[in-house]
Amino acid sequence: MALLTIHLLGTFRLLDGDRPLTTRHTPRLQALLAYLLLHRAAPVPRARLAVLFWPDTTDAQARTNLRNLLHALREALPPGDYLLADTQTIGWNPAAALRLDVADFEAACAAADPAGLQAAVAHYSGDLLPELYDDWVAAERDRLRALLADALQRLAARLEADGRHAEALTAAHRLLRLDPLHEEATVRLMRLNALAGDRAGVRRAYESLASVLRLEVGVEPAADTTAAYHHWLSAAPAPRRPAAARAALPLPADTLFGREPDVAAVAALVARHRLVTLTGYGGVGKTRLALAAAAAAQSDHFADGACWVDLAPLIAADAVIPAAVAALNAPEQAGRAPSVNLVDFLAARRLLLVLDNCEHVLVGAAALIEAVRRDCPGVHVLATSRVRLRLPGEHVYMVEPLALPGVAGGEWRVAGGEEQGAGGGLRVAGVVWGASAVAAVRENPSVQLFVDRAAAVWPTFALTPANAPAVAHICRRLEGIPLAIELAAGRVRLLSTRHIAERLDSAFDLLAAGPTQPRQHRTLRGVLDWSYDLLSADEKTVLRRLAVFAGSFSLAAAESVAGGDPLPPGATLELLAGLIDHSLVAGEEGDDERRYRLHEMTRQYALEQLAAAGEREVVMARLLAYVAALARRARDELRGEQQAVWLRRLDAKTATIEVALEWGSRAADDVAAADTLRVVAELYFYWTLRGRQPYATRLTERALAAAAGRDLPPDAPAQAHVTAAALSIIHTDPTAAADHLAAALADPAALDDAYTAVAHHVRGLVAYIARDHAAAEAIWRAALDATQTDWCRATLLDDLGNVYMRLDQPERALAVFQEERAIAARIGDRISRFYALTNLGIVLGRLGDPAPARAYAAEAVALARQMDSARLIAYALRNQARLALAGGDAPTAYRLLREATALAWEIRNRDLTLSALEQLALAAERLRPDARAVMLFAAVAAARESFRLPPHPADEAATTAARARLAAALPPAAFARAWDEGQRLDWVEVVALAEEE
């Protein structure tokens, strides 16, 4: 198990080994975790925590809040027994492996040597949880600051005594930042500045202390301090005038964020190679990186420094060499060509020549580079260009966008769209996100750049809990492109971050700079106009057609959607290569094929060009047809040996599929409407495996509504009605399922063999839920006899096995589950194999054969984890727990059911959540027959009554018996009180209750 590392000093962070844990960390969650860690010597009474955290609420509400918060804390931590909780106390498990920065800091403060004290100071990366303002946090924060002040005071003294004055100065400065009223530290700082010959530093130290004392205390510095000031001011030698520096590269006007590895890599490349080209998307920061790398390389490798030549203003290629001559201030001789003058000037020099913005004058830049490489052996060239120079010996360095901020609490989606982030949180810029995102994003370079540039135009701007989600959203939406982020930050003068985030759909109008910027960087539109104008007509056609792909795409997809008139046959590959050379399309490695993508801003721009060319509807129809063909193949592949491959393929294409379906559900064209219905039907298995049933339901309903009244091929709406019926069953709505089935089966010829079988599978489930087991058996038996599709036969066999179990016929169930398993093995259907394994475990357990039952159950859990399906994992864990419970292993059952409940609730599967909770209540009663077990049973009973979901007969009998034992074990009043409280719990509260140990 990886070591859990927790940072409470400065930026709050949780790491599982080297992997950051980005679960939503609310201020309350941080506070609870910190309190338990700082009081880890003994368990903390729940009553104390409830009063401490919620002093202004009722005791019952405070305890409910604490249960919910404890549940959230367990979700934030990696799997493991880190917390020990019972009905009275909560504590940190002293046996759990942990590295805590506060503990490391406190231990290091005990050192007496400089190295140990420096380690202590290094551990203190910031104040304790600076975003929290609770009184107990403030007291702990002050205690740790006092420890730091003492360590800094001792460190400065030891370093000064050892003659390490520069390091002592650093320690004294940090101590005074921590405590500006510390007169002893001020005296030391004056003395060290004087010894360094810095009279101005002596004066600054004293005047700073005097100013703070007058402002905060209303007194003057002590007489001894003032005397020391006059002594050290007169003792310090006068400063020497520094030597004038040689002018070289232009000084950067701003800070460079997140490019340290790039600067080092490029500096090393230009030291080794004669020609290095930085290429990448317009606005990605090639110029700024080139200047930083040149500055880093020139002192060690180029005795004559570095020179920057800006080629952006040039129009003609033959102006490149004269521009270089002017930038170098090389002497010109009448009658000689500029190239000769340039070569003569550079021939004996060791110099780095930086040629910036070569893409529009490639011929001229190439001529200059070839002349220099041929006749000037000491000159190296660092070029920036949106297009590769394609010269011999060229080393290309792709400049990538800045790293993007993570998303606390899971990925967000635009509010009003198809899905929301799980749980509540701050709603900013149309997104749902956890309120404490500041600590998670503060160190991200994209965010740092935004904050820095925003503060330049609005000096009071800072990252806060209120604006951090919007800032992170902006940086992610702009894909870490520095120019776009800078332009967005410049709008802080006029708009809040929330309004900037909301307006990013019209980014080209929003993101504009003033006239002092270079022409090609004044607006985001200008950046893209500049690149677009460099393309051939055919390259422009392919680029604008590729814009319909929302995510990555394959070559086959590009040829299918972006090819065709007026492009010559087979031209797409070479045109795509050209777009990659122009840094407008990026390539990336997929699992089984090379994939490509457009940066989002390029995509928006190209969509505008697509609409302007009048091609949007035609190309979107091609995209939908491509997606329909993909979905047709995916339906059967997902039930065969290639399931894992096809899951990855569909994962990579999800965003594009959604774009195609969004257009198709609104298109006036009947062909598009029919294709949309077919796609939502064919992808049913994909969406359910990925836990996206709510999205699939909304999309199916929308597509059916859009198709109403149209004269469509009958197969399309019939297939969609079958899918809608299956989804209704998942959402425990058998009435809606029956209505959709009636529509689907109105014309039996409209459905192929597989869809007919699935329709009857759902029909049988409607009867099964109504407890008409004989009808369900008859429906499924008839469908099994009729279908020729193997995976459908496996599904129907599984149905029959379950009804036989309900009818208390385990031998018949065993036979059909074994047949299902054989079919699944033959065709490679992992879904059917999973259900067969799970049910074989259940039936063998019923038949009193526990060893193979447990083996089947464990194999089912492993297979579900391979498929990475939350629904299947939860289902398998629940059944594995049933076997553990039947074998008397309540602790194992409880552990498995906690995970099953969390997963089932995560995907909002009500039936599975209830079933797991019911089993959890049974395990809780076995472990500790107390009020908490009563509350769990009561909550499940209330939910089953509300949703009209009857329990399994075997579970019902076990539940009745357990409740009777609890009623006998507890005083009647205590049982009634716990039952009443459990019945009033909402979903979040009951899941939080389940998380408690």
TrEMBL record:
<dbReference type="GO" id="GO:0003677">
    <property type="term" value="F:DNA binding"/>
</dbReference>
<dbReference type="InterPro" id="IPR011990">
    <property type="entry name" value="TPR-like_helical_dom_sf"/>
</dbReference>
<dbReference type="InterPro" id="IPR036388">
    <property type="entry name" value="WH-like_DNA-bd_sf"/>
</dbReference>
<dbReference type="Pfam" id="PF03704">
    <property type="entry name" value="BTAD"/>
</dbReference>
<dbReference type="Pfam" id="PF25872">
    <property type="entry name" value="HTH_77"/>
</dbReference>
<dbReference type="InterPro" id="IPR058852">
    <property type="entry name" value="HTH_77"/>
</dbReference>
<dbReference type="InterPro" id="IPR016032">
    <property type="entry name" value="Sig_transdc_resp-reg_C-effctor"/>
</dbReference>
<dbReference type="InterPro" id="IPR027417">
    <property type="entry name" value="P-loop_NTPase"/>
</dbReference>
<protein>
    <recommendedName>
        <fullName>Bacterial transcriptional activator domain-containing protein</fullName>
    </recommendedName>
</protein>
<feature type="domain" description="Bacterial transcriptional activator">
    <location>
        <begin position="100"/>
        <end position="233"/>
    </location>
</feature>
<dbReference type="InterPro" id="IPR019734">
    <property type="entry name" value="TPR_rpt"/>
</dbReference>
<dbReference type="Pfam" id="PF13424">
    <property type="entry name" value="TPR_12"/>
</dbReference>
<dbReference type="GO" id="GO:0006355">
    <property type="term" value="P:regulation of DNA-templated transcription"/>
</dbReference>
<dbReference type="InterPro" id="IPR005158">
    <property type="entry name" value="BTAD"/>
</dbReference>
